[in-house]
Design goal:
- There is one protein chain.
- The chain is an alpha/beta fold.
- 30% of the residues lie in helices and 19% in strands.
- The chain has 11 helices and 18 strands.
- The strands form 4 sheets. A 7-stranded mixed beta sheet has the order 8-7-4-3-16-17-18.
Length: 412
Protein backbone atom coordinates (compact mmCIF):
# COMPACT_ATOMS: atom_id res chain seq x y z
CA UNK A 1 0.00 0.00 0.00
CA UNK A 2 1.19 3.51 -0.78
CA UNK A 3 0.79 6.18 1.86
CA UNK A 4 1.94 9.72 1.11
CA UNK A 5 5.67 9.91 1.52
CA UNK A 6 6.33 6.22 2.04
CA UNK A 7 5.39 2.74 0.90
CA UNK A 8 4.18 0.66 3.80
CA UNK A 9 3.17 -2.97 3.63
CA UNK A 10 2.62 -5.44 6.40
CA UNK A 11 3.16 -9.17 6.13
CA UNK A 12 1.29 -11.76 8.23
CA UNK A 13 2.26 -11.72 11.89
CA UNK A 14 3.26 -15.37 11.55
CA UNK A 15 6.43 -14.12 9.88
CA UNK A 16 7.37 -12.12 12.97
CA UNK A 17 9.81 -13.57 15.45
CA UNK A 18 8.37 -16.15 17.85
CA UNK A 19 11.69 -17.28 19.26
CA UNK A 20 14.74 -15.21 20.12
CA UNK A 21 16.96 -14.28 17.22
CA UNK A 22 20.56 -15.43 17.24
CA UNK A 23 21.48 -11.73 17.07
CA UNK A 24 20.03 -8.42 15.96
CA UNK A 25 21.87 -5.88 13.86
CA UNK A 26 20.78 -2.26 13.66
CA UNK A 27 21.54 -0.53 10.37
CA UNK A 28 21.91 3.23 10.81
CA UNK A 29 23.31 5.14 7.87
CA UNK A 30 24.44 8.74 7.41
CA UNK A 31 24.12 9.47 11.12
CA UNK A 32 27.12 11.79 11.50
CA UNK A 33 25.24 15.00 12.10
CA UNK A 34 23.76 16.33 15.32
CA UNK A 35 20.29 17.26 14.08
CA UNK A 36 16.64 17.00 15.19
CA UNK A 37 16.30 13.90 13.00
CA UNK A 38 19.36 12.28 14.57
CA UNK A 39 18.20 13.14 18.09
CA UNK A 40 14.90 11.32 17.51
CA UNK A 41 16.51 8.38 15.74
CA UNK A 42 19.13 7.93 18.47
CA UNK A 43 16.48 8.06 21.20
CA UNK A 44 14.33 5.52 19.41
CA UNK A 45 17.35 3.27 18.85
CA UNK A 46 18.09 3.28 22.59
CA UNK A 47 14.47 2.41 23.34
CA UNK A 48 14.43 -0.40 20.78
CA UNK A 49 17.60 -1.99 22.14
CA UNK A 50 16.21 -1.75 25.68
CA UNK A 51 13.02 -3.44 24.46
CA UNK A 52 15.14 -6.22 22.97
CA UNK A 53 16.84 -6.72 26.32
CA UNK A 54 13.61 -6.69 28.33
CA UNK A 55 11.77 -9.09 26.01
CA UNK A 56 14.88 -11.23 25.44
CA UNK A 57 14.22 -11.09 21.71
CA UNK A 58 17.85 -11.77 20.85
CA UNK A 59 20.39 -14.19 22.33
CA UNK A 60 23.61 -12.29 21.63
CA UNK A 61 24.42 -8.65 22.28
CA UNK A 62 23.10 -6.53 19.40
CA UNK A 63 25.45 -4.55 17.19
CA UNK A 64 24.98 -1.21 15.46
CA UNK A 65 26.36 -0.85 11.96
CA UNK A 66 26.97 2.72 10.77
CA UNK A 67 26.80 2.75 7.00
CA UNK A 68 29.10 5.64 6.15
CA UNK A 69 29.07 9.44 6.27
CA UNK A 70 29.75 9.12 9.96
CA UNK A 71 30.69 12.80 10.27
CA UNK A 72 29.39 15.67 8.16
CA UNK A 73 30.43 17.55 6.17
CA UNK A 74 34.07 16.59 5.61
CA UNK A 75 35.18 13.92 8.06
CA UNK A 76 37.95 14.51 10.57
CA UNK A 77 40.54 17.24 10.13
CA UNK A 78 44.27 16.60 9.87
CA UNK A 79 44.74 19.21 12.59
CA UNK A 80 46.05 17.72 15.82
CA UNK A 81 44.28 17.84 19.13
CA UNK A 82 40.90 16.99 20.60
CA UNK A 83 39.43 20.49 20.39
CA UNK A 84 39.18 20.85 16.62
CA UNK A 85 35.67 21.67 15.32
CA UNK A 86 35.48 18.25 13.67
CA UNK A 87 36.47 16.41 16.86
CA UNK A 88 33.92 18.36 18.88
CA UNK A 89 31.23 17.57 16.32
CA UNK A 90 32.10 13.88 16.48
CA UNK A 91 31.98 14.00 20.27
CA UNK A 92 28.37 15.23 20.11
CA UNK A 93 27.37 12.42 17.77
CA UNK A 94 29.37 9.79 19.69
CA UNK A 95 27.69 10.72 22.97
CA UNK A 96 24.37 9.41 21.63
CA UNK A 97 25.86 6.05 20.69
CA UNK A 98 27.74 5.69 23.97
CA UNK A 99 24.36 5.47 25.70
CA UNK A 100 23.47 2.24 23.89
CA UNK A 101 23.53 -0.80 26.17
CA UNK A 102 21.89 -4.21 26.32
CA UNK A 103 21.32 -5.75 29.74
CA UNK A 104 24.68 -5.23 31.42
CA UNK A 105 26.73 -5.00 28.23
CA UNK A 106 27.67 -2.11 25.99
CA UNK A 107 26.50 -2.44 22.40
CA UNK A 108 29.34 -2.62 19.88
CA UNK A 109 29.40 -0.01 17.14
CA UNK A 110 30.84 -0.93 13.76
CA UNK A 111 31.19 1.41 10.79
CA UNK A 112 32.14 1.63 7.15
CA UNK A 113 33.49 4.85 5.57
CA UNK A 114 31.49 7.12 3.28
CA UNK A 115 32.31 9.85 0.80
CA UNK A 116 31.83 12.64 3.36
CA UNK A 117 34.22 10.94 5.77
CA UNK A 118 36.86 11.34 3.06
CA UNK A 119 35.86 14.90 2.18
CA UNK A 120 34.79 13.47 -1.20
CA UNK A 121 38.29 12.31 -2.18
CA UNK A 122 39.70 9.01 -0.94
CA UNK A 123 42.89 8.85 -2.99
CA UNK A 124 44.43 12.32 -2.75
CA UNK A 125 47.30 12.29 -0.25
CA UNK A 126 47.93 16.01 0.19
CA UNK A 127 44.93 17.73 1.76
CA UNK A 128 44.14 19.38 5.05
CA UNK A 129 41.02 17.44 6.01
CA UNK A 130 39.06 14.36 5.21
CA UNK A 131 41.75 11.69 5.38
CA UNK A 132 40.56 8.49 6.95
CA UNK A 133 43.39 7.77 9.37
CA UNK A 134 42.04 9.58 12.44
CA UNK A 135 39.04 7.25 12.56
CA UNK A 136 41.42 4.46 13.54
CA UNK A 137 43.07 6.34 16.41
CA UNK A 138 40.09 7.95 18.15
CA UNK A 139 41.95 8.09 21.49
CA UNK A 140 43.79 11.09 20.08
CA UNK A 141 40.48 12.97 19.97
CA UNK A 142 39.73 12.51 23.66
CA UNK A 143 36.93 10.00 23.03
CA UNK A 144 38.11 6.97 25.05
CA UNK A 145 34.61 5.63 25.78
CA UNK A 146 33.57 5.81 22.16
CA UNK A 147 36.90 4.48 20.92
CA UNK A 148 36.56 1.32 23.03
CA UNK A 149 33.19 0.49 21.45
CA UNK A 150 33.70 1.85 17.96
CA UNK A 151 35.68 0.27 15.15
CA UNK A 152 35.71 1.16 11.49
CA UNK A 153 35.98 -1.50 8.79
CA UNK A 154 37.83 -2.19 6.60
CA UNK A 155 41.27 -1.17 7.80
CA UNK A 156 43.46 -2.94 10.35
CA UNK A 157 46.13 -0.81 12.04
CA UNK A 158 49.48 -2.60 12.32
CA UNK A 159 50.75 -2.85 15.94
CA UNK A 160 53.91 -0.88 15.15
CA UNK A 161 51.93 2.22 14.09
CA UNK A 162 52.27 5.12 16.53
CA UNK A 163 49.35 7.48 16.01
CA UNK A 164 47.38 8.82 13.05
CA UNK A 165 50.32 10.77 11.59
CA UNK A 166 52.34 7.56 11.35
CA UNK A 167 49.39 5.74 9.83
CA UNK A 168 48.87 8.59 7.35
CA UNK A 169 52.45 8.31 6.12
CA UNK A 170 52.06 4.55 5.77
CA UNK A 171 48.78 4.22 3.88
CA UNK A 172 48.94 7.37 1.77
CA UNK A 173 52.40 6.59 0.43
CA UNK A 174 50.79 5.16 -2.72
CA UNK A 175 47.25 4.33 -3.89
CA UNK A 176 48.26 0.67 -3.66
CA UNK A 177 49.12 1.06 0.03
CA UNK A 178 45.72 2.60 0.69
CA UNK A 179 44.00 -0.16 -1.28
CA UNK A 180 45.73 -2.90 0.69
CA UNK A 181 44.92 -1.21 4.01
CA UNK A 182 41.27 -0.99 2.95
CA UNK A 183 41.02 -4.55 1.61
CA UNK A 184 37.59 -6.14 2.26
CA UNK A 185 37.36 -7.81 5.66
CA UNK A 186 34.73 -9.49 7.80
CA UNK A 187 33.35 -7.30 10.57
CA UNK A 188 33.87 -8.62 14.09
CA UNK A 189 31.20 -8.36 16.77
CA UNK A 190 28.50 -9.53 14.34
CA UNK A 191 28.14 -13.24 14.93
CA UNK A 192 24.86 -14.22 13.26
CA UNK A 193 25.66 -12.70 9.85
CA UNK A 194 29.02 -12.82 8.12
CA UNK A 195 29.20 -9.15 7.11
CA UNK A 196 32.10 -8.23 4.82
CA UNK A 197 32.93 -4.52 4.78
CA UNK A 198 34.20 -2.74 1.69
CA UNK A 199 35.30 0.83 1.04
CA UNK A 200 32.93 1.76 -1.77
CA UNK A 201 34.20 5.35 -2.10
CA UNK A 202 37.72 4.08 -2.72
CA UNK A 203 36.54 1.47 -5.23
CA UNK A 204 34.47 4.02 -7.16
CA UNK A 205 37.48 6.33 -7.30
CA UNK A 206 39.65 3.51 -8.66
CA UNK A 207 37.22 3.19 -11.55
CA UNK A 208 36.93 6.96 -11.89
CA UNK A 209 40.70 7.47 -12.16
CA UNK A 210 41.40 4.51 -14.44
CA UNK A 211 43.15 2.40 -11.78
CA UNK A 212 41.66 -0.79 -13.16
CA UNK A 213 44.35 -3.09 -11.77
CA UNK A 214 43.74 -1.83 -8.22
CA UNK A 215 39.98 -2.23 -8.69
CA UNK A 216 40.38 -5.78 -9.98
CA UNK A 217 42.64 -6.71 -7.05
CA UNK A 218 40.13 -5.20 -4.62
CA UNK A 219 37.25 -7.18 -6.13
CA UNK A 220 39.32 -10.36 -6.02
CA UNK A 221 39.96 -9.76 -2.31
CA UNK A 222 36.22 -9.32 -1.77
CA UNK A 223 35.46 -12.58 -3.52
CA UNK A 224 38.06 -14.37 -1.40
CA UNK A 225 36.60 -12.99 1.83
CA UNK A 226 33.08 -14.03 0.84
CA UNK A 227 34.24 -17.54 -0.03
CA UNK A 228 35.93 -17.85 3.36
CA UNK A 229 32.49 -17.37 4.94
CA UNK A 230 30.61 -19.61 2.49
CA UNK A 231 29.58 -22.07 5.23
CA UNK A 232 27.74 -19.38 7.25
CA UNK A 233 23.94 -19.28 7.30
CA UNK A 234 23.95 -15.62 6.26
CA UNK A 235 26.45 -13.50 4.35
CA UNK A 236 26.24 -9.81 3.56
CA UNK A 237 28.33 -7.01 2.07
CA UNK A 238 28.32 -3.66 3.87
CA UNK A 239 29.25 -0.47 2.03
CA UNK A 240 28.26 3.16 1.87
CA UNK A 241 27.07 3.30 -1.74
CA UNK A 242 24.01 1.19 -2.65
CA UNK A 243 23.87 -0.89 -5.81
CA UNK A 244 20.51 0.65 -6.71
CA UNK A 245 18.44 3.53 -5.40
CA UNK A 246 15.36 5.54 -6.30
CA UNK A 247 16.17 8.48 -4.07
CA UNK A 248 18.44 11.52 -4.26
CA UNK A 249 21.35 9.82 -6.00
CA UNK A 250 19.25 8.67 -8.93
CA UNK A 251 18.23 12.01 -10.46
CA UNK A 252 17.29 10.56 -13.83
CA UNK A 253 13.76 9.36 -13.05
CA UNK A 254 11.27 10.82 -15.52
CA UNK A 255 8.96 12.59 -13.05
CA UNK A 256 12.00 13.97 -11.24
CA UNK A 257 12.97 15.72 -14.46
CA UNK A 258 9.47 17.20 -14.61
CA UNK A 259 8.97 18.20 -10.99
CA UNK A 260 12.53 18.60 -9.73
CA UNK A 261 14.82 16.68 -7.36
CA UNK A 262 12.26 16.83 -4.53
CA UNK A 263 9.74 14.56 -6.23
CA UNK A 264 7.69 12.87 -4.89
CA UNK A 265 7.93 13.93 -1.22
CA UNK A 266 9.35 17.48 -1.49
CA UNK A 267 11.16 17.15 1.81
CA UNK A 268 12.59 20.70 1.64
CA UNK A 269 10.59 23.88 1.15
CA UNK A 270 12.57 24.91 -1.90
CA UNK A 271 11.53 21.69 -3.63
CA UNK A 272 8.09 23.20 -4.23
CA UNK A 273 9.65 25.58 -6.77
CA UNK A 274 10.14 22.58 -9.01
CA UNK A 275 6.38 22.33 -9.49
CA UNK A 276 6.57 25.43 -11.69
CA UNK A 277 7.53 24.34 -15.20
CA UNK A 278 10.27 24.24 -16.41
CA UNK A 279 12.05 24.93 -13.11
CA UNK A 280 11.94 21.29 -12.04
CA UNK A 281 13.75 20.16 -15.16
CA UNK A 282 16.35 22.91 -14.83
CA UNK A 283 17.00 22.06 -11.17
CA UNK A 284 17.32 18.38 -11.95
CA UNK A 285 19.74 18.90 -14.83
CA UNK A 286 21.86 21.05 -12.51
CA UNK A 287 21.81 18.30 -9.87
CA UNK A 288 22.72 15.68 -12.48
CA UNK A 289 25.75 17.69 -13.52
CA UNK A 290 26.92 18.77 -10.05
CA UNK A 291 27.11 15.41 -8.26
CA UNK A 292 28.06 13.01 -11.02
CA UNK A 293 30.54 10.69 -9.24
CA UNK A 294 28.26 10.16 -6.26
CA UNK A 295 25.21 9.34 -8.39
CA UNK A 296 24.36 5.96 -9.85
CA UNK A 297 24.34 7.27 -13.42
CA UNK A 298 28.06 8.13 -13.41
CA UNK A 299 30.32 5.76 -15.32
CA UNK A 300 32.49 4.97 -12.29
CA UNK A 301 29.52 4.34 -9.99
CA UNK A 302 27.79 2.17 -12.59
CA UNK A 303 30.94 0.08 -13.00
CA UNK A 304 31.15 -0.34 -9.21
CA UNK A 305 27.59 -1.51 -8.81
CA UNK A 306 27.64 -3.87 -11.79
CA UNK A 307 30.90 -5.54 -10.65
CA UNK A 308 29.70 -5.96 -7.05
CA UNK A 309 26.35 -7.32 -8.19
CA UNK A 310 28.08 -9.82 -10.48
CA UNK A 311 30.16 -11.11 -7.54
CA UNK A 312 27.07 -11.35 -5.33
CA UNK A 313 25.22 -13.35 -7.97
CA UNK A 314 28.13 -15.69 -8.64
CA UNK A 315 28.95 -16.23 -4.95
CA UNK A 316 25.26 -16.42 -3.95
CA UNK A 317 25.46 -13.63 -1.38
CA UNK A 318 21.88 -12.78 -0.31
CA UNK A 319 22.32 -9.39 1.40
CA UNK A 320 23.81 -5.96 0.73
CA UNK A 321 23.68 -3.14 3.34
CA UNK A 322 24.25 0.50 2.37
CA UNK A 323 23.49 4.12 3.19
CA UNK A 324 24.31 7.20 1.04
CA UNK A 325 20.72 8.09 0.20
CA UNK A 326 18.92 9.62 3.16
CA UNK A 327 16.01 7.22 3.04
CA UNK A 328 15.24 3.58 3.68
CA UNK A 329 14.66 1.22 0.78
CA UNK A 330 14.30 -2.54 0.46
CA UNK A 331 15.05 -3.52 -3.14
CA UNK A 332 15.15 -6.90 -4.85
CA UNK A 333 18.46 -6.65 -6.72
CA UNK A 334 17.62 -9.59 -8.96
CA UNK A 335 14.68 -7.69 -10.38
CA UNK A 336 16.36 -4.27 -10.29
CA UNK A 337 19.74 -5.17 -11.79
CA UNK A 338 19.36 -8.70 -13.15
CA UNK A 339 16.11 -8.14 -14.97
CA UNK A 340 13.37 -10.46 -16.08
CA UNK A 341 15.34 -11.49 -19.15
CA UNK A 342 18.03 -13.06 -16.94
CA UNK A 343 15.54 -14.83 -14.71
CA UNK A 344 17.12 -13.46 -11.53
CA UNK A 345 14.09 -11.81 -9.92
CA UNK A 346 13.98 -12.89 -6.28
CA UNK A 347 17.71 -12.38 -6.06
CA UNK A 348 19.82 -10.61 -3.40
CA UNK A 349 18.16 -8.11 -1.08
CA UNK A 350 19.50 -4.55 -0.91
CA UNK A 351 18.84 -2.68 2.33
CA UNK A 352 19.42 1.07 2.01
CA UNK A 353 19.35 2.63 5.47
CA UNK A 354 20.58 6.22 5.29
CA UNK A 355 18.08 8.33 7.18
CA UNK A 356 19.97 8.53 10.48
CA UNK A 357 20.24 12.33 10.47
CA UNK A 358 18.75 13.65 7.24
CA UNK A 359 15.87 12.91 4.90
CA UNK A 360 15.69 12.65 1.12
CA UNK A 361 12.76 12.24 -1.23
CA UNK A 362 12.50 8.69 -2.49
CA UNK A 363 10.21 6.76 -4.80
CA UNK A 364 9.24 3.32 -5.99
CA UNK A 365 11.28 1.73 -8.78
CA UNK A 366 12.05 -1.60 -10.34
CA UNK A 367 12.45 -4.20 -7.61
CA UNK A 368 11.19 -1.96 -4.78
CA UNK A 369 9.77 -3.90 -1.86
CA UNK A 370 9.33 -0.93 0.48
CA UNK A 371 10.56 2.62 0.93
CA UNK A 372 10.43 5.27 3.64
CA UNK A 373 11.79 8.70 4.42
CA UNK A 374 11.68 11.09 7.37
CA UNK A 375 14.17 9.48 9.76
CA UNK A 376 14.66 5.93 10.97
CA UNK A 377 16.74 2.76 10.84
CA UNK A 378 16.46 -0.95 10.05
CA UNK A 379 16.46 -3.74 12.59
CA UNK A 380 17.73 -7.07 11.23
CA UNK A 381 16.96 -10.17 13.28
CA UNK A 382 18.94 -13.19 12.09
CA UNK A 383 17.59 -16.68 12.62
CA UNK A 384 18.95 -19.96 11.32
CA UNK A 385 16.23 -20.28 8.66
CA UNK A 386 15.28 -16.66 7.96
CA UNK A 387 16.16 -13.04 8.49
CA UNK A 388 13.55 -10.51 9.58
CA UNK A 389 13.89 -6.88 8.46
CA UNK A 390 11.94 -4.15 10.23
CA UNK A 391 11.87 -0.53 9.09
CA UNK A 392 11.48 1.54 12.25
CA UNK A 393 10.73 5.23 11.90
CA UNK A 394 12.11 8.05 14.06
CA UNK A 395 9.08 7.81 16.35
CA UNK A 396 9.59 4.11 17.05
CA UNK A 397 6.81 2.67 14.87
CA UNK A 398 7.57 -0.44 12.87
CA UNK A 399 6.21 0.67 9.51
CA UNK A 400 7.27 -2.34 7.47
CA UNK A 401 8.26 -5.91 8.23
CA UNK A 402 9.80 -8.29 5.72
CA UNK A 403 10.98 -11.89 6.16
CA UNK A 404 13.62 -13.39 3.89
CA UNK A 405 14.19 -17.16 3.92
CA UNK A 406 17.76 -18.36 4.09
CA UNK A 407 18.99 -19.36 0.63
CA UNK A 408 18.22 -23.05 0.29
CA UNK A 409 16.42 -23.03 3.62
CA UNK A 410 12.81 -23.09 2.48
CA UNK A 411 9.96 -20.76 3.40
CA UNK A 412 10.14 -18.60 6.57
Amino acid sequence: AAAGCASYARIPTAAAARTPAAQTLYLVGDAGLESPVFERVAGTLRAEIARDAHARRTLATPAVLLLGDNLYPAGLSRAEGAATPEALALAQVAERFCALSWREEAVSIRAVPGNHDYDQDAIAAARSEGDITRWYVLDELGLPHFARRFRQFPGDVPPEIRGSADLYDRIYATPDALARFMDPVRIDGVSAIAVVAIDSELLIEFFDTGRTALADAYLAALRSELRAAAAENWRAIAAHHPLETYAKHRPGQFLRFVFGPGWPQFTERWHAIGLLPPLGTIANIYWWTLHSRQDVHSEAYDRYRSEIYRIMAEERVPLFFAGHDHSTQLIDLGEALGGEESGTAGGPLLVVSGEGAKRDPTARGRGTIAYHTGGGFVRVAAFEDRALFEIIDAGGETVFRYALPRPGGGAP
